[in-house]
Amino acid sequence: MAVAETGSFDGAATRLSVTQSAISQRIKGLEDRIGAPVLIRSQPCEPTTTGARLIRHAQDVAVLESATLKDLGKSGTPSTIRLALNADSLATWVLPALADTPGLLFDLVIDDQDHSASWLRSGQVAAAITSRAEPIQGCDVTPLGALAYLATASPRFAETYFPDGITAEALRRAPSLAFNAKDMLQTQFVEHALGQRIPLPVHHLASTEGFVTATRLGLGWGMNPDMLVRDLITAGDLELLSPAPFQTPLYWQISRLVAEPLKPLTKAMAAAGKAQLHPI
Question: What is the tally of structural domains in the chain?
Answer without folding.
Answer: 2
